[in-house]
Amino acid sequence: MDLVIRGGTVVAPSGPFVGDIGIAGGRIAALGGAGVIDRGAREIDATGMYVVPGGVDPHVHTALKSGGTRTLDNFLESTRAAAYGGTTTIVDFAIPDNASNQTPRAAFEQKLDAIAGQATVDVALHACVTGVNDESVHDLRSLLRSGLPTLKMFSIYRGDFMLEPSEIHECLKEVEAANGLALIHCESPHIVEPLIREFGNNGQTDVRFHALSRPPAAELDMVQTIIEMLRITGAMGYVVHVSTPEAAKAILRARRDGVRVWAETCPQYVFLEESVYEAAHGELYVCSPPLRDDSRRAELWQLVLGGHIDVWGSDHCAYSTDQKTAAAGDFRRIPNGLPGVETRCPLLFSKGVSRGLLDLADFVQLTATNPARFAGLYPRKGVILPGSDADIVVYDPEARATLSGSGLHMTTDYTPFDGIEVEGCPRTVLSRGRVVVDEGKFVGSAGHGQFIPGQSPKPPFSRPRTYVHHKQGSKAGSGSTRTIGQ
Known about the structure:
alpha/beta, TIM Barrel, nine-stranded mixed β-sheet, 23 strands, 29% helix, 24% strand
């Protein structure tokens, strides 16, 4: 073996076991009980640690141009930050630049060029369409069948990314024909745009009006519209960054009714809430959809714990405080998006696993296996099985860290989760058998990461989760068991 990880609690599809993982040629070659696998050229002692598949972040924006502003990172920087946070595959977006009439294929090729020689862990891509015409539909058909089986569409951001409902419907038919998967940003322009105009005309442009201009009804309205389009076309759909329990429940009801639709949420929607827009520097928290009130935030977290949210993404956008504050007095001009590729997994581990609210198998499903299935990367990614890529993270459940902009590695000077203490941190991270984070220090290199083409998506089977609730300060493995979300 090139490398053997010994003595950790390995989270495999059949269940966790204490044992060893043998790695050869960048792949997982063997799994076994303690001491069963022959000695490796290098060995990692994972005694007392959790050994999980490398995270797959399905929602990362690297070098995103939006509204005249560009996020700050390149693929070296976004993938390095991902590795620090226990993510070994990011899925970015090949979004055409409408200002230059860029085609979907040209956007894809531009992203490939940007990935090559920069990425430190692997990268997959979602195709994107920002306008429907003969050329874009031709590109879409080709891309869906040649390594980009997922298509991102926006129902908002007129002039930049937005598709009209009729255009979304046309693209959904192409997605269904290719056995692909549609990802949709769901906010209704007929609700949002009049509110933005009204607030602007009244001089109500401070940051608190960002959330007021994009109410929960705007998300739910578009989610229900997309559900009916999916019902009619038969396509598979995935609603990104679900921010309200109302939308999540509508998706759940539709799936129970036979519609092939699933939900993603992000840490900001369950660990932050909209009162930050009233505080100093509320512009740092501007994202779309916006953060919601505390009762919605709490209910959405319960839906995550109950197994009714399918994917945990980041929606990473690395803007700086300077970029955010430059237009602090006018919410319409503040760049939308929050940095989060590095904090995505540690936050869920700390708030879920370490507190006994989420078991390790469910953590893996949300952060690795399900995202890999939706992106068409499973079983190469997102699972610990012989033959899968040796993308592996060794978590130290006792490690603690306090999140801060200066202490993280994303290409920005702040984190919206500043001051939050996390319990349980990635100690060692492997990408295709190569150690890229060693004892918390980055040892990877630009160019190791590769573009990974996707195959047909394999959506997961969803079920309610049972979790063990522990009293504060108790260790995992004790407490009472109950099922929630039913």
